[in-house]
User: What shape does this take?
Amino acid sequence: MPAEEKASYCSVDQNSKCRVYTRTNNYSNEDTHYWRDTSTHYCHPLEDYLPFWPAKPARYREVVSAYTVETKKLITKISDVIISEGLGFEKEYLGGELSKVQKLSDGKWIGVEPLPNAFLVFIGCQLQIISNGKLKSVIHRAVTNSKQARICVCTFVIPSSDCHIESASHLVNESTKIPLYKGYQYKEFLHTYILNHGDFEAVLQFYKL
Assistant: This one.
């Protein structure tokens, strides 16, 4: 995408349906700045969001829309079959609308070697809370080098802003009947996430009972 085209989409509004940005929300507090060109936009329902997508490159909307249709099928299979059945949820409990990567483990960064033609699936904060701590959100980072450019295509599965999130009742300790986390609307979580500069461990601690 040409620089002038990027400039037309540049925005710091996290609610923008389509935007380009180059830095994190925590820029002023960072020891090391994480610069990168990031283009992000909502995908589903396609008929609602497709008109806001970049018109260039020429086949961007055609190719990315086809990709998002297939990834939605994959995500639905993962949430309905693997995660929901594993946690004892009914089908569609989780919504029906639905170079190198490293993860942090015991204070150390461990390389996650990519497999050809495969997806990396990370559990996020919402599933940790819904599963009452049985699933753990993963701290991860992308590693770059000075010799080769890196392009990442990330697909996030997020609730609607008014969606109520809470621990599933059948996963709460039967003796105490007290969940690990308090319930909230997703837009409240986003606000807390921004206030904590993307530190989701601090965010999880905020909702912990």
